[in-house]
Amino acid sequence: MSRTHDYRGMFDTAGTRAPRESRVTEVAAEPGLVVEDPASGFCGAVVTVTGSEVTLEDRFGGRRIFPLRPAGFLYEGRPATLVRPQAAPAGRTLSASGSVHVANLKARTARAARIWVEGLHDAALVEQVWGHDLRVEGVVVEPLHGVDDLAAAVRDFAPGPHRRLGILVDHLVEGTKETRQAREAYRATRDAQQHVLVTGHPYVDVWQAVKPSVVGIREWPVIPRGTDWKTGVCAALRWGEPADGARRVLGAVRSYRDLETPMIGAVERLIDFVTAEGD
User: Where in this protein does the record put region Disordered (predicted)?
Assistant: First the structure.
């Protein structure tokens, strides 16, 4: 007679059903990590971890405190145990950009080279993550307040071997006005093109370069064309005015890990470019 079930290992020697081990993933409770409390259904991003408790903030700004219990949360739909993040190794501190932090830094005298970004929020985000690196290298970041007349601005700057110019542009994808402006900027400096680098990211606005989980949302809302993007986002997420949204977004970013890869790569390329020795 064939066995329809194999019960080996399911009961111990006393005839009691043996518990089956189920591996639960341990996840470091880094700020911005999005988890769900299965008991209440509350879903939010980690804000702080203190003692044996974690504070989560949902997409509407509501906060709740939960105990750090084994398998107490859902992470990406699966049970997970939140654990306190490990402290950085002694003797080696990293900056927000991931570079080695230079202790007792005296900022280098500013170079003639510059990095331009589109607006104040772009400049604030770059400073928040790469500020230490920029001071080490003596690089100044300046907001352009738009790229509508980028070619004229580049001509006025007069780039050269020891006066390199890097430009970070939002929404730099084929067919956009930003791409056309970038091409015109290169044509405006035909004799000094090797001293200018225009690069950017595909996001409509620099806020969108911040990972959604960092600000406690699952994804950035889609805003109809013709509506100011920041205004539309704040309305969709009930964040109030764009100034309120800016405080929320910029205040949530702690390091490069909070940003999307295209943004990280673009800024790193610009820093490398403007700090390279001119030809």
Answer: 1-23
